[in-house]
Amino acid sequence: MNKPHSVGVVEPKIAHFDTPLELTSKSRLDQYQLAYETYGELNQDASNAVLICHALSSDHHAAGRHAGQKQPTGWWEALVGPGKPLDTNRFFIVCSNNLGGCSGSTGPSSNNPETGKPFGPDFPIVTVSDWVESQARLTDQLGIQQWAAVIGGSLGGMQVLQWSISFPERVRHAIVIASTAKLTAQNIGFNDVARQAIRTDPEFFDGNYYQHNTRPRRGLRVARMLGHITYLSDDSMAHKFGRSLQQKAKFDYEFTPEFEVESYLRYKGDQFVDRFDANTYLLMTKALDYFDPAADADGTLSGALSAASANFLVMSFTSDWRFSVERSREIVRALQSNKLNVSYAEIESPHGHDSFLLSIDHYVSVLRAYMNRIHSQLEHNNEASA
Amino acid sequence: MSKILRQTGLTRHDYQVISDWIEPNSHIMDLGCGNGALLKHLQQEKNVTGYGVELDPTKIAQCIENGVNVIQTNLDKGLDHFNTDDFDYVILSLTLQAMRNPKALLQEMMRVGKQGIVTFPNFAYWRNRLQLGLGGYMPVSEELPHKWYDTPNIHLCTIKDFRALCEQLDFTIESSLAVHRTGRQGLSLKLMPNLFGEIALCRFSKNTIKYSA
Q: Domain with B52 in it: what CATH number?
């Protein structure tokens, strides 16, 4: 086998949809588009397709680089590519930008066809179910009956769960990483602080900032800084920054950033503000808050997952306090109650919630083993039908 | 296959004994399942469903590659994550002796499962007795390859000890067998399992008819 490498240059595509999408909120979108990327080749019977669902702040660019870029910029470059666990030599991998996003799919910063102006606050609130519904239509357009696997981390993992419930016959394997079946009060609290930071920024203009040629940069920056802290662990921050000072040996007793961690978070915040839309951030956090398949069923997660028939792989990370290992355990238990096939790995990692983006030995080996298994089933079925 | 069998310390013969004890299409949990070889064997022979439980990250990946469901769990922390009465059989193979609290784990097994199957190295095996009784050293053998200071086997017991604990816990022993590593069978094993048995296999259930009078 060749050494794992990058998929190289990839080109985003756009899928248009004209059938109105009825949303959970009772609103509807008459038409919309989804930006997506694909890696690898779809086989003849379209049985090797894998859908990647993205998390809060990422998009459809999961692997490779865009024309003009020198280095791979995909957010899951660590795991997606030729010879990597999500092996593009074996699988046809699809990743789409969620509806309401700001990277090419219809969202608050897109023009509303009715007014010719950006949707802004008029863009309806979308839920995880709505995303899955819209992705199912993309699945139809791509000529895929059933995904070999649907995979995602964090908010992406919620979409995987919802896929397994909404379209059980279309998901052969469901891979849920660093996720949860519902947010805790603490999670929702963090999200609301982030939203308040954005919504109280004087440049927010009730979400109509596009018309004022401005953006709530400061609010979004604070939101991202807060989020970023929750994606790391206390230990990893201590290890990375400790109490180190920024280019000086002692305090100046003033309010400029003095600690390294302060300038790091500000830098991360600024980077984010340049590429992300504040209204999209608000929408994504609401989708996180609302997700609760148990409440949509009989109040229990096992009741919700009784609809599912996929084989599951659930993974969590020991230092993840945003979506702790207990949250994944609850999912596993609910799957076991339904006697569904499930494997669960608890990955030792100091890197907190963000671990799912990294190449961690145990994580990679488990995911690779699972994908190998899916691949050998494919080979087996092909031989049987040949 | 023979290679993965050997890694678990059980022979093909032991697998067959366990397989014979298990009803087809049962729902099973295998605690300390290693690379999943036993479960895979039972899936093929008895069409069972269920899960292996393992702590070692390397073995988790091996189970998955073997096509066996595996749940990463530290057995010393109990089976809190598993529902009561979910399983037809709960297997604990060559793992009991390494548990911090074997008694509590046996009780947990009987909570989540209808029947338990335990295999363990019999500390009263005559070679062990010889090493300790005459040699004066802690036994070291193929089954118990560690020195006293680095052994994970912190709760070794004999067949008699195990039977006594089952009685105390009010378990009914449904079947039991002592075997020799080589798979050799004989009258001596049947008559004096606690002396000649190298490995003990035991199937038990909750004593439900107790105090019915």
A: 3.40.50.150
DSSP state of A225: H
Do residue A166 and residue A115 come from a single domain? Answer: yes
Contact B42, B18 (CB under 8 A): yes
What pTM did the predictor assign? Answer: 0.94
- pLDDT above 90 as % of chain B: 72
CB B188 within 8 Å of CB B161: no
Asked, for residue A5, whether it belongs to a domain, the answer is: no
Domain-ending residue, one of A283, A314, A333: A283
Helical segments of B81-199, H only:
102-112, 126-130, 159-168, 187-191, 193-196
CB contact under 8 A, B71 and A332: yes
Count of domains observed in chain A: 2
The mean per-residue pLDDT over the stretch B153-161 comes to 93
The answer to whether residue A373 neighbours chain B at the CB level (below 8 Å) is: yes
In a domain, B117, yes or no: yes
Residues A253 and A301 in one domain: no
For residue B64, the chain A residues in CB contact (below 8 A) are 313, 343, 366, 369-370, 373
User: Cβ neighbours of residue A114 under 8 Å, at least 6 residues apart?
Assistant: none
Residues A276 and A322 in one domain: no
Residues of chain A contacting B71 with CB distance shorter than 8 Å: 332, 336, 342-344
Note whether B83 contacts A337, CB cutoff 8 Å.
yes
- The complex's ipTM? 0.93
Cβ–Cβ below 8 Å for A369 and B62: yes
Q: How many Cβ atoms sit within 10 Å of the Cβ of residue B24? A: 10
Closest listed residue to residue A58, CA positions, set A103, A16, A120 = A103
Distance (Å, whole) CA A315 – CA A325: 8
The verdict on a CB contact (< 8 Å) between B86 and A336 is yes
Instruction: Tell me the pLDDT tens digit for each residue of A312-323.
Output: 999 999 999 999
A-chain CB neighbours of B72 within 8 Å are 344-346
* A336 close to B (CB below 8 A): yes
